[in-house]
Amino acid sequence: MLQIDGGLSVLHLWxxxxxxxxxxxxxxxxxxxxxxxxxxxxxxxxPTAYGELVSIGGLNPDTNKKLSxxxxxxxxxKLSVPKSRFFLKFYDTKxxxxxxxxxx
Length: 104
Known about the structure:
This protein is α+β, with helices and mostly antiparallel strands. The chain has 2 helices and 2 strands, in the order H-E-H-E. The protein has helices spanning 10-21, 61-79, and strands at residues 49-56, 86-93. Helix 2 links the parallel strand 1 (49-56) and strand 2 (86-93). Residues 1-7 have low confidence and may be disordered.
C-alpha cells in the first residue's frame, strides 16, 4: 500500500474527502490505486493519473467539481501528479446496471 506523511494512506485520504463532500456512508465505495502503470497523457509520459467514479445517483456538476478539486489536491501534494495531468471520469448509473456478489 502506498503510504504518505503521518502513516495515512492515499486511499484513506480519498475516502475522507468523499465522505466530507458527498457521501454519508462508504459501505458501497471501492477505490483501486495502482502505481507504476505506464501511461501517456497529453503526448508525454510525465507523472499522470486516471480515475473513474461510479455512483448510483448523487452526482451533479457541483459535486463533480468539488470531488475533482479534492482528488487533484491529493494527487498533487501526495503523489506529485500536477493538477493538469489527471483525468477523472464520472458515471451516474442506475442500481439495475450494477451488481454486488453479496446480493447473489
